[in-house]
Amino acid sequence: MPDPISAIRREQGRSDSGRLILALLAFIVWSAISRTLPAQEKSLLWRVSRDDKSVYLLGSIHYLRKENYPLNPAILTTLDASTRLILEIDLNSTPADSAQRLSLEKAIYRDGTTLAQNVSAETYQLAERRATELGLDMRILNPMKPWFAALTMVAIKLQRMGLDPKFGVDRHLAERAKSTGKPTGGLETLEFQLGIFDRLSKREQELMLRETVGELERLDRDIDAVVSAWLKGEGDQLASLLNAGMQEYPELYENILVARNRRWVGGIEKLIQQESGAMVVVGAAHLVGKDSVVEMLKAKGYSVEQR
Description:
alpha/beta; 8 strands; 49% helix; disordered N terminus
């Protein structure tokens, strides 16, 4: 989930460095694409229709490199022909200042405790080891809740690999829509997305941190497989790469993926009926696998065609 909204910076008295650099991420899809999609291949773009009404669904990549552009022309053609662009969060109406303020309210301990006091010694040591490998001082992570510490380390790892949220597909399409005067909207609010993580039980937050520090080591190895699957539009392979690990943690899987997919399906159905021709862009992990938005719409009798 996301998806990074912005990198934020603010003074933090509990850090000896005097400055806390945080990466705000709604949900991260650990992937990147290279250049454009060959014409003969499918992409993670679907047309969902019933009768003569339809919308398009696109699986987004939240972190990319500058050299990954331009995007597949089919994506841009679909956007240009659409009536409205709908994202997880409306990036064109989410002020950076309010995003920073809200993230700090949710992500930082306000009761005087620290990360070290809210997770086991083993989990903390694993996180500390991974942070050291990333060149990150644990004093920066200590004020953070486990879920935010996890997302911060993922953001730093991706940026160490040359990937940047400002080149994410969703942000690129939002800026293109803004420049052409195309209306935009969101399926959720930033507060809702942050709340998903913040409402996780203490146990699940720690599991999320443990899962993350374990997955970081695999990220360098798995990235090529993810790239290939995304380029070829291989949904089953992407589901295995992106979602399989999370299924080992049912509460995380349900709250971060499945429950949101169910809510989104209702909103997409309304779009089909009320604003045929809209384009909906969400993290690719939400559109692949047995619990995906695509499968839920098929189960409701919609015609779903991958482009």
